[in-house]
């Protein structure tokens, strides 16, 4: 009984060990030293800490926006590579927090298994993406065709290997702690890897579905900070004491207006509106197509209430601009809750930022906490209101069937078209 009580006591301390260690002299999981470049420190030495932080954040924000424009110019492959790098860095920051909190217990294989599970999940998701979007390429290459055919079985076998390794790593008196960390790893994978996979899916629908949502989140973050910095008086939420209602409301209206303007500019360019497809002849990505109705100017009647205010009866705009209102509204009203969630997470572990990667901003995860939530919404929005069956993908799959299966589908489709009177009218024409 005494041994059992002792084991429960040691095992049970995991429920609050991060807090107790921080409260009783434990070190912070992530260092909080000043990481501002020395050049900026000297240039801004005469300013107060408030204005110094404003200038540091502003300069680094402009640098990140410039980098964002550069990777957009470099094309979809570079964008996908950057998404992968951001995913790995975010995973590293979150896993490092868990390791630094619990490293004193010397748990075996924690980081090794965490990275192994990251590899397994990425293999599964990116394998599904390759099979879906590069179907003809996969069918053309024998090794890829075999991997595609047994992809899910291989993925499951890889995961089972990691699962068995975890069971073998269990240490007496730390079972509960190890299962906490097992759950920590899987929740991190769910938040980071799944969302980054959705971002890439959005990118394949057209770069505009990637750029506009991300830009709306960036705009909302910047404008909420600006309005809060200059006009903020009323606290918004206890999890983030610096957030104010003035910043929240100002960010909302600024983001909606920004989304409308950005959508209008980008909707006129095929390189942004066309789906990203793989050209089998050139073995490269192409973004050239006939723009869909979403990206063709149409005339809309202005409500009578607003006609007397603006002086117009009709307005010409792209249908995508209407969708951009939904995207920008989510980015400004619901998107910040991703940041609040991250703030609660950091408060639970008594840390200021996830890392010190970007001076004045914290870690990569500090900048992408809202982006991941936005990615899920965009993917769900496209699937619910935008995307229809893709004829080219259906034809690709049709061509891989056996001849008897192709004939069966052909005869079924022919009979269906004849019954509807479509095939007869086409033959007469």
UniProtKB/TrEMBL annotation:
GO cellular component, one term: endoplasmic reticulum membrane
Pfam family, one: CTP_transf_1
Keywords: Lipid biosynthesis, Lipid metabolism, Membrane, Nucleotidyltransferase, Phospholipid biosynthesis, Phospholipid metabolism, Transferase, Transmembrane, Transmembrane helix
Functional pathway: Phospholipid metabolism; CDP-diacylglycerol biosynthesis; CDP-diacylglycerol from sn-glycerol 3-phosphate: step 3/3; Lipid metabolism
GO biological process terms, semicolon-separated: CDP-diacylglycerol biosynthetic process
Gene Ontology MF: a single term: phosphatidate cytidylyltransferase activity
Reactions performed catalytically: 1,2-di-(5Z,8Z,11Z,14Z)-eicosatetraenoyl-sn-glycero-3-phosphate + CTP + H(+) = 1,2-di-(5Z,8Z,11Z,14Z-eicosatetraenoyl)-sn-glycero-3-cytidine-5'-diphosphate + diphosphate; 1-octadecanoyl-2-(9Z,12Z-octadecadienoyl)-sn-glycero-3-phosphate + CTP + H(+) = 1-octadecanoyl-2-(9Z,12Z-octadecadienoyl)-sn-glycero-3-cytidine-5'-diphosphate + diphosphate; 1-octadecanoyl-2-(5Z,8Z,11Z,14Z-eicosatetraenoyl)-sn-glycero-3-phosphate + CTP + H(+) = 1-octadecanoyl-2-(5Z,8Z,11Z,14Z-eicosatetraenoyl)-sn-glycero-3-cytidine-5'-diphosphate + diphosphate; 1-octadecanoyl-2-(4Z,7Z,10Z,13Z,16Z,19Z-docosahexaenoyl)-sn-glycero-3-phosphate + CTP + H(+) = 1-octadecanoyl-2-(4Z,7Z,10Z,13Z,16Z,19Z-docosahexaenoyl)-sn-glycero-3-cytidine-5'-diphosphate + diphosphate
InterPro entries in the record: PC_trans, PC_Trfase_euk
Subcellular locations according to the entry: Membrane
Entry membrane topology: Multi-pass membrane protein
Residue intervals passing through the bilayer: 109-126, 153-171, 178-200, 206-232, 244-266, 320-342
Renumbered residue ranges of the record's region Disordered: 1-37
EC identifiers of the protein: 2.7.7.41
Protein name as catalogued: Phosphatidate cytidylyltransferase
């Amino acid at each position: 009984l005494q041994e059992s009580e002792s084991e429960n006591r040691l095992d049970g301390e995991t429920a609050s060990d991060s807090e107790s260690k921080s409260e009783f002299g434990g070190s912070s999981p992530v260092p909080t030293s000043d990481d501002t470049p020395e050049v900026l420190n000297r240039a801004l030495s005469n300013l107060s800490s408030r204005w110094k932080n404003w200038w540091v954040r502003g300069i680094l924000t402009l640098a990140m926006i410039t980098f964002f424009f550069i990777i957009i110019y470099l094309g979809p492959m570079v964008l996908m590579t950057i998404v992968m790098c951001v995913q790995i860095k975010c995973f590293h920051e979150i896993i490092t927090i868990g390791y630094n909190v619990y490293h004193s217990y010397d748990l075996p294989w924690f980081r090794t298994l965490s990275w192994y599970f990251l590899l397994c999940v990425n293999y599964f998701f990116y394998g599904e993406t390759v099979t879906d979007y590069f179907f003809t390429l996969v069918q053309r290459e024998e090794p890829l065709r075999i991997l595609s055919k047994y992809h899910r079985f291989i993925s499951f076998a890889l995961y089972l290997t990691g699962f068995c390794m975890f069971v073998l790593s269990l240490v007496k008196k730390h079972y509960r702690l190890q299962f906490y960390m097992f759950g920590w790893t899987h929740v991190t994978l769910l938040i980071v890897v799944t969302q980054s996979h959705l971002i890439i899916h959005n990118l394949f629908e057209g770069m505009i579905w990637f750029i506009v949502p991300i830009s709306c989140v960036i705009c909302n973050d910047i404008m909420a900070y600006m309005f809060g910095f200059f006009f903020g008086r009323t606290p918004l939420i206890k999890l983030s004491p610096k957030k104010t209602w003035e910043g929240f409301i100002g960010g909302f209206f600024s983001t909606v207006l920004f989304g409308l303007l950005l959508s209008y500019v980008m909707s006129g360019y095929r390189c942004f509106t066309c789906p990203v497809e793989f050209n089998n002849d050139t073995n490269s990505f192409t973004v050239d197509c006939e723009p869909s109705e979403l990206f063709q100017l149409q005339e809309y009647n202005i409500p009578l209430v607003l006609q007397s205010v603006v002086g117009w009866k009709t307005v010409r705009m792209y249908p995508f601009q209407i969708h951009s209102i939904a995207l920008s509204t989510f980015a400004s009203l619901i998107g910040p809750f991703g940041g609040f969630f991250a703030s609660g997470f950091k408060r639970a572990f008594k840390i200021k930022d996830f890392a010190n990667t970007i001076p004045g901003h914290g870690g990569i995860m500090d900048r992408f906490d809202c982006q991941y939530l936005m990615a899920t919404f965009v993917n769900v929005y496209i699937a619910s209101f935008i995307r229809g069956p893709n004829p080219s993908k259906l034809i690709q799959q049709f061509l891989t069937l056996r001849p008897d299966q192709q004939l069966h589908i052909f005869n079924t489709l022919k009979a269906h078209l004849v019954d509807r009177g479509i095939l007869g009218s086409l033959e007469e024409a």
